[in-house]
Amino acid sequence: MDTITLTGGNKLCFLSFGEENRGHGKTVIFVHGAGANSETWRRTAEKLEHQHWILALDMPGHGRSIGFGSSSIEGYADQVEDLLDQLGEKEAVVVGNSMGGGIALQIALNCPEKLWGIGLVGTGARLRVLPDIFESIKADFPGAVKKIAGFALYSQDESEAAVLMERELGRGDPQVIYNDFLACNRFDVMERVDHIQLPALVVCGRQDRLTPLKYAEYLAQQIPRATLQVIEECGHVSMVEHPERLAEILEEFLA
Hints:
By secondary structure, the chain is α/β, with parallel strands linked by helices. Helices cover 41% and strands 18% of the residues.
């Protein structure tokens, strides 16, 4: 796990894969969803490290990164923009799942000159949250973790994906996770995404219940240079349920 100190003192931790490719392939920054961390991206990152430098982030307050998180997508986007400035990469691609996709969209709107493109995985231009999720986090955090993981996954059995999701969500701070969902609920760039001129990859699981396919179709229709890919038998977190297939889709996009 590597660390970089952001402006303001927050230390941002990240998993690094394929750094020997720095300056050759793309620099790909994976941003996790609400309450999650870098581990959700590990298997996809490992499939891409032969050609690109991959950084899977723990946003502040998540995983191994200290801090208190943020209650706005803009707040998180500012921190990733700070990271981009410090890296000084010319071919950076921010790929985000759910909340992370909102962060990628916000960065593309704020400072497109810092990016080669964006990847939007199980996300939308607006990210409304079920009221029951907020209530559950406050009343019964372990129960909320199971509920969120259940909503996120296509398969409801005790699979490796279910174990990973429940384990990593359960390691989070309940207040940080609550604020993540608050940030998602406040996010809305429906009227602005058509301003994004960067190459954009939009990926959605066919059975995504949190950000249904119509969210992805809207992004693909509104962003002029967007491409849509749908993964079958997949829910909200394709990097957990189908990491190899997602890596193939990303590899084609990055090429």
